[in-house]
Amino acid sequence: MEEDEDESEEEEEHFWDDWEGEDEEGEQRDSEFVCLFCESRYSSCGSLFDHCASLHRFDFHAIRTTLSLDFYASFKLINFIRSLVAENRCWSCGLTCQSNRDLQNHLHDLVDFNEIKTLWNDDRYLIPFMEDDSLLYSFGDCDEEGEDEQITPIDEDLIKDLMNIEESIHDDQDVVNKMVVDDDKHEIASVSNDHLNKASSSKELINGKDLCCDKDPEGHLMVNSQNHIAKHIKKINESYFGSYSSFGIHREMLSDKVRMDAYGQAILKNPSLLNSAVVMDVGCGTGILSLFSAKAGASRVIAVEASAKMAAVASQIAKDNGLLLSKSQNGVDGFQKGVIEVVHGMVEEIDKTVEVQPHSVDVLLSEWMGYCLLYESMLGSVLYARDRWLKPGGAILPDTATIFVAGFGKGATSLPFWENVCDFDMSCIGNELVIDAARIPIVDVVDSQDLVTCSAILQSFDLATMKPNEVDFTATATLELKPSYSGTCCWCYGVVLWFDTGFTSRFCQETPAVLSTSPYMPRTHWSQTILTFREPIAMGFGKGNRGKPEAIGTEVYPAAKIDLRVSIVRSTEHRSIDISLEAAGVEPDGQKRSWPAQLFNLQ
What we know:
603 residues; Rossmann fold; 4 domains; 16 helices; 23% strand; cytoplasm; metal ion binding
């Protein structure tokens, strides 16, 4: 009996040994690394790079070290090599060989490292050349032995970079740019100032193999080949468009008199522009701008709406008002009434559902603006529609947009409220709220009386000519104290941003219009965007402090003006924006004191 049990145990152990062996073989097959220059395969990237160095004159580690290549540049380098080898071209000199064998014989040591570096400094190499290229996700740890997990811990900033390569509906040639994000503060994007000019858009993320993020027990981010990013972007889009399925937001927008007056004037009081025109309304919502266009005499109105519910609502509203396009089946020619055609879908995809000839639209309409003008990132879709369907010389409404900035005083904060609540001092709460406001933008109405500086133009956009990548920008402005504060010292607690959009005489020749969200104008549903300094800056018209720049901006030596450097870019969090704010107090004699940059995320 004991012998039978022993034999059974041996058989069971043998069974599990076989199973584990098969599993290990499967894992080995999955983790094979393909040589960059030939078809040799290796079980580790370290062995592969040793092979490349000895046989193909390509020392990956030496190149990374000499050129100080980060993960991004190394990622591009691998794809660059693979793309050239596929064409039998030498990666270092560019010579095209007749065959791969000839290329193998031709390969030589690299002569000038710095000259070659620029060859793969192209964001198209962020898209893997070879499908399922496991080398791309393992080269950073190729010196480590005994890796059992196929999920590789990598730099956390890189994960945020790769998550920035979002799914778009543009052509495959869309540019992929990087954005580095500080993981320690998820509310903001911690980037250097020159990185703040970069954003991303790409139809494919790593040939459809998207990345998902998780953390190992030690807290390191890990990469896994999943469809997480595409699902994440889709979820955000669904949430974004779904938020517009609520009638509350539409009532708020339709009740916004400044908004409605500007669009109504531009559309209804410029007959030479709209009469018999083909109009496209991007993000039509209830269809109010399309209704205006039909009333103004448009011959065809293509109303595009990504929310399924609102597309149905817009159709019903147009139908109820006798303006929905419908065709009778009776008669040879049929009978057509109404001019509005509601199309459900994102504007980049409407080719699938409606026939619109390229460059056939006379007027492109959209109310695309978000908080701080650029929140929601809808401008890119409008520019796509402009380039795809607007006729040469066609009108885009609005056609200009301008962001303004001004400094605000204590009255625009919550401090006065908390300093006296029923005769009790609760300023500790106000102080804490101000600290939080130095990290997170506040969207609220600012009273013009609480502005302590004159306003300045931060950035202007010409929507008829601007390029899509100009949505992200860095700009400077100087804030000067209002003349009414002459002879006194006041404190500037931060800056407030707002925007104007123009329906200029370029297209609205009879009746130009302006939509302003300024604190000096009637309030709108956009309010203003408030960015609070970590510490207030004293301003006044006093004399210089004679060589003490560290004292500038204090009550003793108030700054005569404040120099700003502001960057606004599309965030790695889809449809959000990141804002970088730098401030420097300037003395009358030109001395400056700069404060550390602050980073905000509006989401």
